């Protein structure tokens, strides 16, 4: 999985990051290390939580795509790409990948 999800804009600051689990209410602090996700191929699908950690004003769009690291497509997962569209005030989105 690519760690593609950082997006800074001078007029609409914000930080998008993978989260291992749904965070508590309140401010989401920036991650201090990359998120690591391990799944079994028998799981069928993995849902990756992307959090808008800072800056909930305005709309933020970010593109994503899978890329091989310790797994290879199509043997281990199906390629996936798309766009996440965070509207003002939205904090969480999911990326689904078939394994």
UniProtKB/TrEMBL annotation:
Annotated Calx-beta domain ranges read 33-99
Q: Which GO terms describe its cellular component?
A: cytoplasm; membrane; stereocilium
Alphabetically ordered keywords of this record: Calcium, Repeat, Signal
The reply on keyword Signal is yes
A GO biological process this protein is involved in? sensory perception of sound
Name assigned to this protein: Calx-beta domain-containing protein
Q: Name one Pfam family in it.
A: Calx-beta
Molecular function per GO: adenylate cyclase inhibitor activity; G protein-coupled receptor activity; G-protein alpha-subunit binding
Does the keyword section mention Lyase?
no
| Natural source organism | Hucho hucho (huchen)
């Amino acid at each position: 999985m690519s760690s593609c999800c950082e997006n800074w804009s001078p007029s609409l600051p914000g930080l998008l990051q993978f989260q291992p689990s749904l965070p508590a209410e309140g401010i989401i602090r920036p991650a201090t290390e990359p998120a690591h996700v391990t799944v079994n191929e028998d799981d069928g699908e993995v849902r990756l939580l992307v959090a808008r950690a800072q800056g909930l004003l305005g709309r933020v769009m970010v593109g994503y795509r899978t890329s091989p690291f310790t797994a290879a497509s199509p043997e281990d997962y199906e390629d996936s790409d798309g766009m996440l569209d965070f509207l003002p005030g939205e904090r969480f989105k999911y990326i689904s990948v078939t394994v």
